[in-house]
Prior knowledge:
The structure is a single chain. It contains 15 helices and eight strands. It is an alpha+beta fold. The protein has two domains: 1-41 and 146-260 and 362-409; 55-145 and 265-361, no CATH class. An eight-stranded antiparallel sheet has the order 4-3-2-1-5-6-7-8. Helix 6 (155-178) packs antiparallel against helix 9 (229-243) and helix 9 (229-243) packs across helix 10 (245-256).
Amino acid sequence: MRALWTVVHRWIGLVLAGFLTMAGLTGAVLSWDHEIDEWLNADMLETPARGPLKTPLELAAAVQASEPRAEISYMTLGLVEGEAAMFMVRPRPDPATGQAPALGYDTVFVDPVSGHITGQRNGRSFALSQRNLMPWLRHLHESLLAPRFWGTDRWGYWFMGSLALLWVADSFVALLLTFPVKLRKGAPRLTAAVGSWWRRWLPSWRVRWGGGAYKLNFDLHRAGGLWVWAVIVIVAFTSFSLNLYREVFYPVMRTVSTTTPGPYETLKPAPQGTLLVPQVSFAQAIAIAQSEAKRLGFAQPAGGIWWGGDFPFYNVSFFDPHDETGAMGMGLSNIYVSSDNGEVLGTYRPWHGTAADVFVQLQLPLHSGRILGTPGRVLMSFVGVLVAVLSITGVIIWWRKRRARKMTP
């Protein structure tokens, strides 16, 4: 049986190796995406003007005036002096032809004091540049930069989510293969048998630094995986749950436990390639959400509003503008406002709801490590690099064994 699991681990590992190397290294970098982005693009993200802040709607008007062919899908509400406000835009279809113009960008940054546009970038561009490095890496990490075809842009997410599920299964196979082959025969007591088994398993946790290149490579692969095995399983599982959330994860959670579905789970999106027309304005949705937040006693101010055009509601987010993820990565709340009639359709509040609701909420904080704050981000960077090391050492082990078999007469 062990021989079978060895073959299973070998071939799953070879299939996953390239993808996990990429995902591990990009994930290590993305743990610090805001800091790196601000360093690379300080001229765009840091603003010189000082004084009274304009309102988000005034800034939105400036963005709209700069390019009438664009329409706003997201605007920053939590403005901070010295930090550019972000506005996400998309092409506005021509009423006469129905065709959407090519804008060349999807994000605009604006000085919240002066209202001047500090820069633009296309976060979905396949071309790599200093301006879009961090969005480019995130899309590579999540979806392999897969383009839209056959009416959807979800192919890359589905593919990476499926690989993540395979990674979860292989992690348990890898753990099994580190165990001793069998317990010592003739052990007089269970405690003695367990002690014997543990002593035989202990070498699997050690790295023989002076044992030569082959032993070092093998030990890094085996011991490295053991020391962070639990974290790897968490990362692998949350990779699956985040990428296949609507398709697999949430439907399964709803089946096996009690969840509180929100509008993303209960409403159907518009047909692919079409956008809804809101009957409620950004200003009205913001006012309704702020009133509801006051009634519910939200501690944080409104930080942003999203109108995707695919669902008939606005998503108004509430968070500390200085720390969007908040305490333990659970600092963001949402209020959903109908774009048809202004009705409050639901709320998202971290640490609220059933046990299954909280488990669902924890997926991104666990995956990013932010559940542990800065130490968690450091841990995820380390684990990302280690995942790449485990993948590369696994390929080296296979290659050397394959070469040895070919050389054997």
